[in-house]
Model the fold of this input.
Amino acid sequence: MIAGIETGGTKIICAVAEEATPSRLVEVIEFPTGAPDGAGERIRAFLGERGRRVDAVGVASFGPLDLDPSSPGRGRITATTKPGWAGTSLAELIGPHRSMTLVSDVTGAAIGESAYGAASGVSDVAYVTVGTGIGVGAILSGTPVSGVGHPEMGHLPVRRHPDDDFPGVCPFHGDCVEGLASGPAMAARWSRSTRALGADHARAVQIESSYLGQLLATVLYSLVPQRIVLGGGVLKIEGMLTGARAAMRREVNGALGAGHPSTEVDAFVVAPALGDHSGVLGALHLARNGAFARTDSLAAAG
Amino acid sequence: MIAGIETGGTKIICAVAEEATPSRLVEVIEFPTGAPDGAGERIRAFLGERGRRVDAVGVASFGPLDLDPSSPGRGRITATTKPGWAGTSLAELIGPHRSMTLVSDVTGAAIGESAYGAASGVSDVAYVTVGTGIGVGAILSGTPVSGVGHPEMGHLPVRRHPDDDFPGVCPFHGDCVEGLASGPAMAARWSRSTRALGADHARAVQIESSYLGQLLATVLYSLVPQRIVLGGGVLKIEGMLTGARAAMRREVNGALGAGHPSTEVDAFVVAPALGDHSGVLGALHLARNGAFARTDSLAAAG
Done:
């Protein structure tokens, strides 16, 4: 069997499938991320449950990750602010005697949506999530952008909306796009849950759209996808997807030419099709198709 | 023999070399870009001069370019504001019965600097030019980002420097990074050539650095290069490279971790090593190694 594991900032999802049918989940569990020791125990128990034999594991993890094959820290989480997780080796979480392919959580989601979801058949895809954090994963010419590093676009500088004086929540920058437009940033700006914006709903969507428009335009200018899959908790706010699309179109303003696929904005920026399973399905896809390193050597290298 | 051609916004450079030694230029000419008809005549005359036989041609052209293999406009310049050039087929400029590989001018420069210059031996490279325009080319895991499209990062939204009220020169956006920080933008802001900033030199470098810092940080976050080659006319201003490096470091502010190669900013952001020939050498490298389409079929397709 093969396994896919998504270690997200909030929860971990583990799934197993037969190698021939990676998108048909035989069993799936999820649990809160917690501390790395407890997470590793639950992951390893799941992989060995009822005597099943899982040899190849795809992992889509929050980061930043060290993916550099020449680095002694390869396969580890680096500068995270998540308590206890900086320096964690994903290979150690998986346990010895297995093959592992590691990508960022959003790269995994891009792979999942590209293989089985809203971007199937498209060779150049970006997956953008706006939730607890803001992240971007990309596939260019069919290959994930995941060589020695992976995109870290949550920290993009953005222009402020003129009506927004919220200082931002990013510990590094204050008002980068994650600092101004992530779910926690919205909740702090409006002093309430993003599910209960009430009378401020229209203004909140307007301000948020201005930041997402800049983010999407920057993804378009830099990674040149043919489609953007836009997901995450913030996109569950009514009118948010429509607002983000319109803001991206205003932001680009025809600069890429009238024939560019981004001008068909409803077909260009789409919602994910795999719900909460984009990442874990991407991880399973990698488990079948990825280039593997042995967990033993990765854990020892660190 | 093989040929490399850089069709820049200002001038065109053509070079021929033996296939075994693409970086040793046998003959090179350059002339002002002018109109496409005249440019095509000079290019075709050069390729056929003194009876030499040039079969494979690499082309690095200003854009935006249609590179999509499935597009009827493949191999053409699309939404340029350069008079006469919108819709131009590069294959027609080269002439029939030849093989052509086409990339954007800055992708060509990235390939040249990666193969023979300031980024040789580095698998993940971005080339950033700040001159008449602002452009970014990228190589990820050894492969140019040039599948169905190419980066168009001149249009990035940027935060204004607080002391800058210049409206910007971009016809699409006014104050995108090209509108505020290209050579023509600087010349218009200070009402003089960037070679004669005089008493405004220090302020000009400070304001320009703030924009280049955002540009470089965005390149870093999105394309995750291991090195950035930063060239173009604006970088010839004294103190500009140092200012841009410092601004990128302030902009990132440690968000990618203490071990990230970008923290060694002098080694991470470097000047080009090939002078004016980055693009044409990249085009020659492509002429030897690229995936070719026949000029006949490309010209006919449009």
